[in-house]
Design a protein that fits this description.
323 residues, mainly beta, Glucose Permease (Domain IIA), globular
Length: 323
């Protein structure tokens, strides 16, 4: 009996020692840089005898993330919310329900509806989506060996790219409940945009066999922020790290699952400060700015994906997320 007790105590001690002590992690001193200002978000509010619904967004415009709060007048057995055809995953709180959705960058501007369905009520809230300006690059970008077809099409590189793709697919396939308990944090200590969200960028591609070069146009599915090598990178929201690894194009990359279909990811870092499986809090140090992978210089690429839709991660920072 004494031996069994000793074994149990030893196992518990090992488990405790292996767990990352959240009180010892580095947290950003401020949620926002001094040179980054947050304006009041736009708001749509509807109240009737059955429910109160409020939707917030930086702007109700292409590429922004939106946040909704729903407070039924009485207890409901079922509640569902859709924006256009997208089901919004809801979290039940003491005060009501909350959820997030992204406005697709390619959604045509116009009037759409957010439909709220409860046991005894159904309302549709009109949401006018405005156009966003997404820049188009004129000067083609060159990425040394990443611009050489002879290099990226070698069997070894193609195999590594395929392995990296599987890792990302596995990470984005993870599912967790809502992890968000804190307000969002800016991912760097300073604010300077290097390349805008959803910009159309042109890339040079060389083919030594034909002695030709071509340009390929791709969408920038995140935002590039200027930074010096080694500067701290912080998690934008609470969540669970589902990937922390060095990949081909992305370099040192971290993907964080924030629950309910919300992911943020960070690329090209010099080094990683977290591992897959770690639970992190908003503002926690997760890595350092670098220039790994397909990169022309030190910077941070950060992206936000909500229910499979890419959104401008900086649009998250204005949302009054309620616990």
């Amino acid at each position: 009996m004494k031996m069994q007790v000793t074994v149990i105590i030893m196992v518990c001690c090992v488990a405790i020692s292996c767990a990352r002590d959240i009180t010892k992690v580095t947290i950003a001193k401020k949620p926002l840089p001094d040179n980054f200002t947050v304006a009041q978000p736009e708001k749509i509010a509807v109240t009737n005898d059955a429910v109160t619904c409020t939707i917030y967004a930086k702007r109700f415009a292409q590429g922004n993330v939106a946040y909704c709060e729903i407070i039924p007048a009485r207890d409901v057995k079922s509640l569902s919310v859709k924006f256009i055809d997208t089901e919004i995953v809801l979290s039940k709180k003491k005060w009501g329900y909350r959820g997030f959705f992204a406005i697709d960058p390619d959604l045509k501007p116009g009037v759409y509806h957010c439909a709220i369905h409860g046991d005894t009520f159904h309302i549709e809230i009109p949401v006018t989506i405005k156009r966003s300006f997404f820049p188009v690059s004129v000067i083609p970008m060159e990425f040394d060996k990443f611009s050489q077809k002879d290099y990226i099409e070698t069997p070894e590189v193609k195999q590594f790219i395929a392995e990296c793709t599987k890792k990302k697919q596995k990470a984005f396939a993870t599912r967790f409940d809502d992890c968000i308990q804190s307000p969002p944090y800016y991912p760097l200590n300073t604010h300077a945009i290097n390349s805008a969200f959803w910009a159309k960028r042109r890339y040079l591609l060389y083919d030594s066999s034909t002695k030709k070069r071509q340009t390929v146009t791709r969408i920038h599915r995140g935002i590039d922020l200027n930074g010096n090598s080694g500067e701290p990178v912080y998690a934008v929201l609470d969540g669970i790290v589902v990937l922390a690894d060095k990949l081909f194009y992305e370099g040192n990359m971290v993907i964080i699952n924030h629950g309910n279909g919300i992911f943020s990811y960070y690329m090209h870092m010099e080094k990683l400060m977290v591992s897959s499986g770690d639970r992190v809090v908003a503002g926690q140090l997760i890595g350092a700015v670098g220039s790994t992978g397909m990169s022309t210089g030190p910077h941070l690429h950060v992206s936000l994906m909500v229910h499979g839709v890419q959104a401008n991660p900086l649009s998250l920072l204005v949302l009054p997320i309620k616990k």
